[in-house]
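ugh ok fine here u go
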Amino acid sequence: MKGLILSGGKGTRLLPLTYRRAKQLIPVANEPVLCRVIRAIRDAGITEVGIVVGDTEPEIREAVNGGERWGVNITYIRQSAPAGLAHAVKEALPFLGDDRFVMFLGDNVIQGGISSLIRQFADSDWNSQIVLKRVPNPQQFGVAELTAEGSIRRLVEKPKQPPSDLALVGIYMFDRHVRQAVESIRPSARGELEITDAIQWLVDHGFRVHPYIHDGWWIDTGKMADMLTANAYVLDELAPSNEGRVDENSTIGRRVTLQKGAEIISSQVRGPSIIGENTRIINSYIGPYTSIYNGVVIENSEIEHSIVLENSHIENVGARIQDSLIGRNAHVAQTVRKPKSICLNLGDYSQIDLV
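structure:
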């Protein structure tokens, strides 16, 4: 089998973080989501992986390279236009050939990986397998309606009145017959080749499409709140380790991960949390469900349930920072001069809540 990762979206719901960064490269538990997806595919025994890219191709190439870090071979496939998931499959056909493959959206995080799903599909005579998850807001996703026997009756893309609460979570498996499907369907009302229409074509033409209902957690990391939720879930699963340094005036919890070169100085760190490479925590408190990426300095401050990206500096903040996503090279500080005032230098689409 081969792997196909879709990584061409612009990430408009994560602005301003995604003005200059691919949304798939924002980390959860200090690992970019795209890298987590590659690792999940590798762990399923797949070594030939295609990544469908768009305008953020240079940054993705720089981060992933040829896949040597994971022991896979990466092929980059430039999508000519953001014209739908089935369009991405159509443009990846030269890479896919007649091989079976798994398609994984590059901004999805799922509990438990996909190894068991790959084995299940590889050992079957199914033409396709789709992963479904019960969600409270199915109108925001592709939705599957099943028969009483559990087979697929129909699929609908982002319906105003969903026929069920079973959302397609962005993990699909296909054999060579998907080629006929993507070449036969027409653009939807929004001008895209929908993967739901391609799967429906397979169902309508008598091909075997198996629905798998996922019981664990799944997060589409399209918004800040989703990133924080995914970060918390992954931190809960993370096996803690310590490659850093903790001085005698500091305490760390048993579920804290310190990556290479991290320093904890006169501080308290509670888990689950992760402190990145060459990050320094000085006279500060790091609370649960916090990921601090590489090269960060946090001094005389408190933060919890947050993500801080690389090379940022947080100092002398009197109030606890929480439920926050702080971008790269950011500087957050509080001065003591009088009169007190708030000084902001924010990019477009920024959000700040003052309490």
